[in-house]
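Exercise 7 asks you to align residues with tokens for two separate proteins.
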Amino acid sequence: MPSPASPLRMVIQRALALSAVVLLGVTACTAAPPVLPSTTPAPTQAPTPTLFTFGTGTDPLGFDPALVSDTESYRVTRQVMEGLLTVNAVTGDPAPSLATEWTEGDGGLKYTFTLRPDVLFHDGTAFDAAAVCANFERWYTMPVSTRGDGSSSMFKQVFRAFSDDSENSLYDGCTVGSALQVTLGLKTRLTGFLPALTLPAFAISSPTALKANTANVLDQTFASNKVSRYGLHPVGTGPFTFAEASAGSVTMNANKDYWGEKGQITTLKFKTFEQPATRLAALEEGSIDGYDPVTPDNLDKLIKSGKQVLQRDPFSVMYVGINQKIPVLQDVKVREAIAAAIDKSLLASNFFIGGTATTAQFIPPKLSGFNNAVEGIAYDPQKAKTLLAASSYNGEELPFYYPTNAARTYLPTPEKVYAQIAVELTKAGFNIKPVPIPWNEGYLTAVTRDGNHALSLMGWNGSYADPDNFVGPLFGSPGAELGMDDPQLTSKITRARSMPNGPDRVAAYESISKQIATTVPAIPIVFPISAIALSDRVQSYPLSPVLNEVFNQVKLVTPTTD
């Protein structure tokens, strides 16, 4: 894969082993020992106080991973909380975390987990099987007043429904076998179940903290998002404990009782810089130790200054959402005209890091289900005009939502991408109304709930290695973002996710990719390459395509003494 040109002193590391994260292997039990934090007891001497400050592009939306799904919220909760499973950094397979081993039973309807002993939550309470079940039951029974329609909830995306629609839910309970043994039940086989458990949304919270901080009562606000008191102060078992958060800053401290490798960092701070230039300036002046994401317009400056730039292998998709609740967008010719009007190659070359590939489908090429035969709708301005003339479109104003003051790993420069697409759609004959919304003032809510958004700029970061992770959340059930109701597509996705790995499942997802390309419920644009920048203080960083980057694994250069 090509990368940007490299002048003298450039340092670009590609983390080659991480490309294997897109392998599919779902196993019935643990395989060869994975790469995991060491459980060697910590040295008896107190660690040297070490502050590490990392720059980000936007504020988190909250810290209860069951209710938020944005990258920056997860960046925080990954440090504080852990799930039963994590991602093996070498193979991409599910690997032990709070569960040390597991077995599959009853034809894939039962999974029994052996839990890690002697683990404490940050509030001093014990992690055990009862805590696991308390979390799963909370997710399953979460009231509508807390979750809304649940469309953005990872629980719904994996299990399809909550307890108030139990007939359609795939979740079939959690059973305590002993203090360190728990069994999760499914109503139907779910091939991607174990990979799905690596999602940050399934991190285990302290039940005591959930209750004390009324986790299901959203009576607080953070970054214009309704949250609970628990959502302002999460309590898990991870290598860092949550200290405080305010607009522009989140602080965590090393967990002195952590069961695994504690690392070198004693205080971890995430600091928000909405503008790329300010992130770059902060790194150059030494007030931060790294930042994410790198934008194309500051990449050259980083290279010339000799900073480390690490590129993640692409495992996300940037797309234009189309809301079929808007009557004229129910006309497939209108949706085809939108697709034909967009020059994906120009967008990829001008607004993304070099090597970013255009795409006609949502499933990445390294996952089964990517269909080589799907070409999609090619850029053809004249065809766009012809399709539009033959459609039911009659000049209706189309509100086009896009985020501002934000840089996402899948969308580093949203304002520029919007401007280019809007110009192309206008030339084709569309009446586009710009609707800019600052990311931290409710953009995600505005485009994922009922509203007048006709078009929207969005993206999806892959979180685990299964094709369902890319098509299930968007197209597997009706939702307000796309306003689509396609029972046939929903049925095909539901069937495919329960099929065992093999040629039939591959064919099923290839068929799904073809149908999405044909019906155009959304327009995939590119599989973006994202990158981070680091100071010379950093010796190594746990780069991950699925963003499973936990900072106790950051290695710092040891200062030399004269």
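Second protein for Exercise 7:
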Amino acid sequence: MNANTMTLKSYLTAIILFTITLIIAVSGGLMVFVTKQTYLDGVSQRGIELAKVLANDAHVIQATQRSNQGTFESIRDYIETIRSKTDASYIVVTNKNGIRLSHPEQERVGETFIGEDIQATLKQGLTRTTVATGSLGSAIRNFAPIQMNDQVIGAVSIGYLNQSITDLLFNYYLEAILWLGFIYISAIVLTLSLLSKLKRTFLEYEPEEIVQRFKEHSLLLGSIREGIIAIDRQHKITAINDAASYWLAPDQDHEKLIGLPLEELSQGLSLLIVDSLSNRNKHSITLGRHDFAASLYPLNDQSTDSGYLIVLNHEQDMSELEQELARTTAYAHQLRAKTHEHNNKLNVISGLLQAGKTQAAIDYLQQESDLHQNMLGALVKSIENSPVAGMLLSKYNYASEHQIAFTLDEDSQLKNYDQSVNDDLISLIGNLLENAFYAAQNNPNAQASTDMFISDRTNFLMITVEDSGLGVDEKIAQRIFDLGISSKPDSSQHGVGLYLVSRIVKHYNGSLDWERSDANTTVFSVYLDKRELEP
């Protein structure tokens, strides 16, 4: 891993710490703003209320009225006694000319009130709050008018010095900072605890290392020739490699099998798990058309059964290899015999030409080519689909070599389709013909023959293949389209053709049927909706 790449722990630590710090900073800022604003609103409200109370005090009203009439009277002691019982920084009472009748400092009693903000109260009788600087410093000043007979005769000013407010708010802030600090440290501790838990869960691996190991795990499973299947306690598939997927579900992507109950994939393997309770970990089992030696290994996690690992080994002993070699040798002998037959025909033509019997040689060649020409004419006339036509010609050649009468109905018709559809049609038709040829060859009571009709003139593509074979064995009649089911003696090499045919028919939402005709022939019929074939 690149040394410059940030690890999961570092990345999460940075993100979480940044998030926590941002939250704490925003929360602290909002708390300071809200706390200060709330406190100032409270101070203003209290100051106004106290000013109104003092403005209605009889002693204050009388002293203020006498001062307006020329008889000055200090009420400092009376006011200071009241102030000492409140949180106000100062209380100043003035007459209508702004002359102080009280002040926290004795020498300033009798002097003019500092600040023009008192004039609105003295002249207009307004109750208001201002922030201004007076003789004691900057303060929040709350004014209320002193009235007599609806006339303003003075004013009461309740002041809260900013320094005092700041000192008081600092105590609140300090407590809040301590709580925010506690929350911040707790969040860091929880973050470190979470990271430690993640590291233990990931076995000390970083995400990049986990991804790399997962890729290596998938590559390793895919490269093993044996089938590997892992299941959990509920017998659901947790891992499966390509080999096991190919043997058990060749038409499905092995990734889609993850999470599938084992019994849906293979009833035999599901029952095998039950047999494993007898403490046997090796079994022989037949799956589809394959025989396997299955080994079961319990998967334990902290002394608790958590599932099984199933290993499938394909059993192909030497006798099967010998049989395959024998079939290959027989095919080589057949090719040699065909070569001799071809050479003999060339010798006949050569002899006729040397003897001057040109017409006889021409007649002999014509006889040999008539059947091929008939088939070629039918293909050119009816089958526009070149890939399918080529496949049918190869099947005709095969039938001719094996003395099977293969006939393509003159009314047949097939147009060209996309490459993928053509490939499916070749697989479908080819497998039907191969089964028909095999059935026709193995009926000693009738001459081997196979007839085929194909047409896409209507909204459906119809294919029928009729052979002179003995028909389908009743024992497998209901399962003839299943994987691995075959009437051929060597079923391990067969049981795929009709399975593929049925899968292709289902892919195009078609139908596939077979029946035994009155003429003791077997007819397979396929119907495909052309809308599914055309883009």
